[in-house]
Design goal:
Blueprint (H helix, E strand, L loop, with lengths): L7 H21 L38 H15 L27 H5 L23 H6 L2 H8 L14 H14 L19 H11 L1 H4 L17 H7 L1 H10 L18 H11 L11 H19 L27 H5 L30 H8 L14 H14 L19 H11 L1 H4 L17 H7 L1 H10 L11 H4 L3 H11 L8
Amino acid sequence: MFRKRTYIPVVFLVVMMLLMLTACSTATEPPPPPPEAEEAEPTEVPPTEPPTTEPPPPTEVQITGSTSKGGLLYDKWWKTLGLEEPAEDHLLWATQSTNTRSGADTWRCKECHGWDYQGAEGAYGSGSHFTGFVGVMEASSSKSPVEILAALDGSQYPDHDFSVVGEEALGDLVIFLSEGLEDVAPYIDAESKAAVGGETKNGEDLYNKTCTGCHGDDGRLLNFGDEEEPAYVGTIALDNPWEFIHKVRAGQPGSEPPMSSSIDSDWSLQDVVDVLTYAQTLPVEAEMTTDADVVALGGRLFDKWWKELGLDEPSENNPVWARQDSNTRSGGDTWRCKECHGWDYKGAEGAYSSGSHFTGFPGIFAAKEKSEEEILAQLTGEVDVDHDYSVMGEDALSNLVNFIKEGLVEISPLIDPETKAAVGGDLSHGEELYSATCVVCHGEDGRTLNFGGDDEPEYVATIALDNPWEFIHKVRVGQPGSVPPMPASIIAGWSLDDLLDLLAYAQTLSIEAP
């Protein structure tokens, strides 16, 4: 028997193997390369247009300040700013050995660079002030304000660092050094120190308008030295005319009231030289004490003796004070002659006959008729042991006796006791007297000096209106311990009519804070 064969599986396997071989062959062949990309043309950048405006300039440092204040700082900066006086030497001081000063003096700009700003090439080119340091005059014309500032704040010279004065003060000093210096050499003979080219008459006019209020007609009201070696306006003008010119231009550091500055008053340099020329004619010797001086001093002792004499203010009540109980003041006030006897010298019979000042004590007007010995005995406790003022010293007691004998005047007719208004008086003449004598310290409206506080200010008019008796007393003899000394009309020879005219004018001034 024959069996039937089939060929389909064999054919299928052959076909599958062929397909697999074909697939493997296809997978191993590399892919055809991509078509080459066409190279792009470069994009042309349009040309840049030039700017239509110039770029802004770099910002410059703006330095502002006061020329006159810079001059004060150049003189004595800590006094001007109310800072503590330097105790140690300036760092640069050790680089010189000829000037033997120390401490604060070594920090004064003028000590290195001179009152004439020429340093070793000027008035300080020899003598005890010589240091060898250069002046600052050339820097004022060759250096910019920014460069001058860099020389002052330590950024350029670390050992020449004055930044302790503060940014504002540095600005003032820079402005003075860059804009305020004057070459005064042509106006002063270097050998004789005499002014050159000044006009005495104009100098006298300027002095009378500006300086007499503080320095007096002859320049001796203020003594910058001491009793043994006095120094007056004439002394400075003759001995150091360069310093004189600097101070007239810039003022005196820390003075109260502030010394006027000719820079701020728009004086020319020729005006300053004219004042120097006149000032060199003023006396330099101490003034002989006159009877009027003695009386005026006694009047200030009557007001507040410890202030005038530079003594400690009494802290305990005057023993006599316990004999009254209407006036409740205590301490130093109880030792003031005026507190018992009044500004009109009439005690319980005068302006202090009522009110908070009433004590019941009698006045001293009648004591004018007593002898000097009798008055002195009353003041030293010989008559009344509780009324002992011998702590003042013999000279002061003698001055007080002189005031009581020679200085008391009857002022009641000048003042209306009810309204306190001046009785009569020439306002125009009063204004002239005020302008000539008082305006320098108190200002044109009487409000430059405040005798009270910020909450309750007191000005010239305040005193004139509230207590015209006190006003007249102080105008006659001055203010105890004031610097500069308040002029005394007793010494100037004013009459009672003059006092009345000034009082009448002063009562028209403002009492409101400016």
